[in-house]
Request: fold
Amino acid sequence: MLLFVYGTLKQGGKYHAYLEEANLVSEHASAKGSLYDTGLGYPAFSLAGSDDVVGEVYDIPDVLWPALDFLEDCVGDESDLYEKKTLTVQTENGTLEAVVYLARQQDLLKTKISSGNWEIVYA
Reply:
């Protein structure tokens, strides 16, 4: 299954090591929505908006999903910070369907990042 990453899981990000066993499918990808700085050292993605959120796409082996869900606080509890949705993602080779972790808690959406790009300096 494919995963679109837009923050600390991107290359150079502090949690990129979680993707060591994943295969990079697209280094230049984007999805429609809005990106926010949470003020907590990581971004949050919302479908409300029409910006191009910049990221990468990885093919994730089944064995990695539980660790990623735990990292993203998406384990199926009411208090989860994120939820998984499948989106259409644009890549240099066309469109793909990929899972993305979206903000479930609206208080994560602190400061909009108008460029749609969570720069590595944040990570």
About this structure: Residues 32 and 52 are 5 Å apart (CA to CA). Residues 65-71 form the longest helix (7 residues).
